[in-house]
Amino acid sequence: MAKKTAPQADLTAKKELALAVIERLKKEYPDAACSLDYEHAWQLLVSVRLAAQCTDARVNIVVEDLFAKYPGVAALAEATPEEIEAIVKPCGLGRSKARDISACMRILRDRYHCQVPTTFEELLALPGVGRKSANLIMGDVFGKPAIVTDTHCIRLCNKIGLVDDIKEPQKVEMALWKIVPPEEGNDLCHRFVLHGRAVCNARHAECDRCCLADICKTGKLFVK
Fold it and tell me: Which of 13, 41, 103, 104 has its CA 20 to 30 A from that of 80?
């Protein structure tokens, strides 16, 4: 049998680590779900745009008024960016977010019969939709393999040792595709968010009560 090269051995080790992380986080957080509230795909598309540099909790409050006033794609497409901005301003970056939401809804109305497109490439082509948003829609709405590299995912993957000093979202995503089973990616990223908020907080990580401490690259330094 041919001896594994260093890169192959490292990839194998990371795959094994990923499976262990997945198993433990499943036990810790059995209900993996998006923390943005939505009933329809277009609503998630709007909410994830508003969530940039804003908490999901605040977005969930703000969109109550937005969706009550504009209950469908066609209605929101008719609103001016200024009318949208007046409601979403508390989420920050109101002007640019309102402009993107307005343009996106008009495309859904005019090109997709008020439906959200079902391919990654079509989603990426929509105004204000990046890889993180497109992956979230693909995973949560359409049940397709997806990896959402938000700040929690990037931070935890580096701390745990699933990736090595990679901060760019797309590079982290590509690295995770190599080691995480496709069917596990979407839920794993939701569990990273839950774990990042509950235990592995950016300001104060509680390694002494972390279910990953003994297999985490950083946790091993603090927990004996």
Answer: 41
Residue ranges making up the domain that contains 151: 6-30+147-221
Examine residue 186 and state whether it is found in any structural domain, yes or no.
Answer: yes
Among candidates 11, 31, 9, 15, which has minimal Cα distance to 198?
31
Same domain, 56 and 24: no
Neighbours of 31 (CB within 10 A): 8
List 205's β-bridge partners, or say none.
200
Structure tokens at 77: 């497409």
Q: What is the pLDDT of residues 110-133, one digit of tens each?
A: 999 999 999 999 999 999 999 999
Read off the tokens for 99. Answer: 């402009």
- Number of folded domains that form the chain: 2
The pTM of this model reads 0.91
- pLDDT tens digit sequence for 32-43: 999 999 999 999
CA distance 79 to 101: 10
Residues belonging to the active site: 132, 150
pLDDT confidence band for 219 (50 / 70 / 90):
confident
